[in-house]
Amino acid sequence: MKILLTGGKGQVGSEFTEYVEQNPELGVELLITDLHNLDISNRDQVRATVAEFEPQWIVHLAALTAVDLCEDQVDLAFSVNAIGTRNLVQAADAVGAKVCYISTDYVFDGESSTPYREWDTPNPKSVYGKSKLAGELEVRPTDLIIRTSWVMGKYGSNILKTMIRLARGEGEVKFVGDQIGSPTVVSDLIRTIVDLITRDQSGLFHACNEGSLSWFELCRFVFQEVGADPNRVVEISSDQLDSSRKAPRPKYSVLDNMAIRLTKSKPLPNYRDSVAALVRTLLEG
Questions:
Q1: Which of 7, 13, 72, 285 has CA atoms 20 to 30 A from the CA of 64?
Q2: Considering 101, 128, 252, 271, which one is annotated as catalytic?
């Protein structure tokens, strides 16, 4: 199987590449692209790259994910997240390839009190969420959309690494207790992506680790795993956060992995097991 990977140097892309290299039995020939060698907002460049490689799948990880920047740079957000996806879909169509598009819990408004299913109506409040939903609208029914949330892995910057750094320090740390979601450990997300594309699935899937909690509760859990005092973590509300954070965050964005259950796809583990294992990996690194 020939896979063209966008966002190949990012948090998920780096582990995706590593996973493919460590599992030669998958038989994947991978073309790794990132901003340095493929500007997805450039239609001609995308068409030329895809036409030359002729992949069966495009795993589309590239995105502008700086949610506060998106509020100021609306055209840039839509150029990358929407037009970039359009360009890839059109190029895929020309060579008979399928696209796996990674989306986000930010497509929902966060007003629910029960987990969001794949068939619930999106209502994004941030520019980031609106631009990612626009990207979803660019894909074809034969393509694959995977929505995920609270992504954390071995590479790049993420909130889990911040929590570990804070746990190794001193004094109290503050995290919000009124934003609820589900962590997604990158290694579990990658196994889900590979499972779905190797079984030629299409349509919309939610994929996050099972279980939900607040950022405050997650930080206490991480402190416990590191061996730090969880009582150093102080709960605050969202309205106490730095006012420079321009993008609204969903108060509740738990995703129900219903489509994974109904299609008998491989379930993702509970976040407690996966986050604990990732913490150990990061502490050993």
A1: 285
A2: 128
